[in-house]
Amino acid sequence: EYDKRNSYGVFQHVPARHEALVWLGMSYVSQGDFDQALEVIAFIEADRKFAKEYDRAFLALETFYFLEKENWSQSLEKIDELIGSTKKKKDKSRLYFIQGQLLDLQGETNPAIASFESVLKSNPPFEMAFYAKLKIAELSSRSGRSSDEVRKMLAKMAKEAKNVQYLDQIFYASALVEYNANREELALDFLRQSLN
Fold first, then answer.
1. Are 94 and 128 contacting, i.e. CB atoms less than 8 angstroms apart?
2. Gap between the Cα atoms of 109 and 165, Å rounded
3. DSSP letter (8 states) at residue 7
4. Which of 38, 40, 128, 172 is deepest in the core (most CB within 10 A)?
5. Can you tell me the distance from the alpha carbon of 93 to that of 79, in angstroms, rounded to the nearest whole number?
């Protein structure tokens, strides 16, 4: 079926048209052609027949666009919308992680910690959980949260066999915690351990 109103005439098959438009926008963003990407975004927004099943893909396109433009506040708005429209916990873990990173960039320490804690609650893959714990430790030590709780978490991580290859990062995070707690000697000890 040919849609005469479609200014992108190459997409004649209606079911594929919507997905193709999203991927066209993604391609433009990937190539750094933000003007063309914005045109595709505007076209999709104006398309009253845009299939609801591609709303999440369109949100992902908008999020990607704002991330690449380094517009953190708009990126956060779109990430929040994506999280709200995502049903599976497993799919939310990555979004929470990105949300935490963006909040950290904006200096929103406590909300960033909450996002990284949400990552841990969403049953993430091992590496994502590991890095979320490190970010929680780093942000907690910066915000003045209880260092004892963070120390216990890092000590437990250092003892776990599955974290052996990550000990340098755990010791570095421990050094940051001690440094922010004005315990420079202990911080230096952890830094030395991170180098070994």
1. yes
2. 28
3. S
4. 40
5. 12
CA angle 14/19/22 to nearest 5° reads: 125
Give tens-digit pLDDT for 58-89.
Answer: 999 999 999 999 999 999 999 999 999 998 88
C-alpha distances out from residue 57 to 16, 20, 91, 131, 172, Å: 13, 11, 13, 26, 38
**Residue whose C-alpha is closest to residue 64's, from 98, 103, 89, 106:** 98
Q: Please provide the DSSP assignment of 71-121 as one string.
A: -HHHHHHHHHHHHHH---HHHHHHHHHHHHHHHHHTT-HHHHHHHHHHHHH
pLDDT at res. 1: 47
Kindly report the number of other CB atoms within 10 A of residue 113's CB atom. Answer: 23
The whole-angstrom separation of Cα 70 and Cα 192 is: 36
Phi, psi of 181 (to 5 degrees): -95, 10
Residue 193's alpha-carbon distances to 31, 140, 157, 196, in angstroms, are 42, 22, 15, 5
DSSP classification of residue 15: H
* Greatest Cα pair distance in the chain: 73
Q: By percentage, how much of the chain surpasses pLDDT 90?
A: 69
Rounded Cα distance, 37 and 25, in Å: 5
Question: pTM for the whole thing?
Answer: 0.82
Q: Are 95 and 86 in contact (CB under 8 A)?
A: yes
User: For 163, which DSSP code?
Assistant: G
**Residue pair 135/112 in contact by the 8 Å Cβ criterion:** yes
